[in-house]
Amino acid sequence: MSSKRTFAPRRSALAAVAAVAALSVTATACGPEENPENDPKPSSSASADGGSRDLGLPKDLPFTVDDLKRWKEGEWDNWEPDGWLGDAKDFINPIIEDLWDRDRMNDAEEPEREVDEDEIDGTPDGDGEGSSEDEGVTDPTPPVVQAVEVETPYTEKAPAHGKVFMDTPKGQMVCSATVVQDPANPGTSNLVATAGHCVHGGKDKGWFRNVIFVPGFNHNGLAAEELESAPREDVLPHGIWWAAEAATTDHWRNTGAERGGAGAQQDFAVLKVSPEEESTTASLEETVGDAVKVNFSLPKVSTLPEMTVRGYPAAPPYDGSTMYGCTGAPGRLTIDTAQPTMYRAGCTMTGGSSGGGWLAPGPDGEDELYSVTSIGPITATWLAGPRLGAEAKAVFDSLSK
After folding, report:
1. pLDDT-based confidence at 66, cuts 50/70/90?
2. How far apart are CA 95 and CA 89, in angstroms?
3. For residue 62, is the peptide bond before it cis, meaning its omega torsion is within 30 degrees of 0?
4. What's the gap between Cα 1 and its chain centre?
5. Hey, is 65 helix, strand or coil?
6. How far from the centroid of its chain's Cα atoms is residue 146's Cα?
7. How far is 172 from 100, CA to CA, in rounded Å?
8. Which end of the chain has fewer CB atoms at under 10 Å, N or C?
9. Average pLDDT over residues 273-293
10. Across the chain, how many H-helices and E-strands are there?
């Protein structure tokens, strides 16, 4: 996997309109486009960072006509929902200051990721030929575990967790996510782990727009009605971080569906983020004070006696304002026997918790991230997430550099 050329991340609404007008003229005045067949194939990983923050124009000149066209056609404010998603081949996500105000965040809805029981495959004895005892296995439905509110302030008790907001053809949507360690930049990570369906539409679709991460959202656990008038620092204790780059698995891109279990066993994504505030010079990890190591070793479920799932459930009876968690023993769930078996755990969290981290102590006793929430039943009695192996690591490595 490789990344696209980086583009200017910041522009005001006026500058954006002027820039697009200029680009329209430039693109049509240039010579023939390069053959797209000769372009790199980084569709599972794409970039939207770099460049001048003052003028809002691409930094590296000259650049190809294809690059220019991608930037121009990326849109960022008023696209047509019926057409743009299928054409969003590249992740183009310039920073738009003050776009994500409180009203926009309040309007964000949770993705629908309910799976039907008849989509579940596998047997207690397993019918796959994987390298572990878990492949092709589906355990009995786990006992229901009631989600409980995470202790406040989140900035101290769960500092690595937060919310992801994005624009989709259905409007604003919301997920959950976790700050993760970047081996290429120890102590200064700008990487965030979430679900693939929180950044990309899946089969025959494309990348979402205006994707941001809000670490520690509502860190004091205020009620939804209190958030409307709460000081900014209570709602956004570490500000807003825009996704400069995004990567997800080819399996999610090629098979993922809006609802149900298709693509769920590789439903994983990584974001590389940049702060909206120009004055912010510290990395995300330095800003929040924490980052979780990602474990890609596909450990046997039997070696994980307990896992903790965190997220911001937004579908009833929850409203998305508060972080919740569930802790219990994971089981195994198979949707597709050709893919690694998923983790499944009893939990009553609903939509909006998608992308939230699944944590368990690693060999050194420190919490590590083993999965992210992908699916659950309409009854909201359990959640499931992919076991992270080679495919997920390739996604991660494409942005760890």
Report:
1. low
2. 19
3. yes
4. 18
5. helix
6. 25
7. 10
8. C
9. 96
10. 10, 16
| Confidence (pLDDT) at 294 | 98
- Whether pTM > 0.90 for this model: the answer is no
Q: Phi and psi dihedrals of 209, rounded to 5?
A: -120, 165
Give residues with Cβ within 8 angstroms of 272, minimum separation 6.
49, 190, 191, 192, 243, 244, 245, 246, 399
Residue with tokens 């460049």: 51
Report which of 70, 75, 53 is spatially closest to residue 4, judged by C-alpha positions.
70
Cβ atoms of 164 and 195 closer than 8 Å: no
State the burial class of residue 133 (Cβ atoms within 10 Å of its Cβ: 0-12, 13-18, 19+): middle
Q: Please give the radius of gyration of the chain, using alpha carbons only, rounded to the nearest integer.
A: 20
Q: What span, in angstroms and rounded, lies between the C-alpha atoms of 273 and 378?
A: 32
13-42 residue pLDDT tens: 334 433 333 333 222 223 333 333 333 333
Put residue 239 in one of left, alpha, beta given phi > 0 → left and psi -120 to 50 → alpha.
Answer: left
Which stretches of 108-227 are DSSP H helices? 154-157, 224-227
Q: Alpha-carbon distance 232 to 235, whole Å?
A: 5
The pLDDT value recorded for residue 128 is 41
Rounded Cα–Cα distance for residues 328 and 305 (Å): 8
Task: Identify whether the C-beta of residue 46 lies closer than 8 Å to the C-beta of residue 245.
Answer: yes
Q: What would the two tokens of residue 263 be?
A: 């693509």
Q: How many residues does the chain have?
A: 401
Phi first, then psi: give them for residue 399, nearest 5 degrees. Answer: -110, -10
Tell me the per-residue pLDDT of 301-344, one tens digit each, with 9 for 90 and over: 989 999 999 999 999 999 999 999 999 999 999 998 889 999 99
Beta-carbon contacts of 159 under 8 Å, excluding residues fewer than 6 positions away, are 179, 215, 216, 288, 289, 290
Tokens 């495959």, located at residue: 121
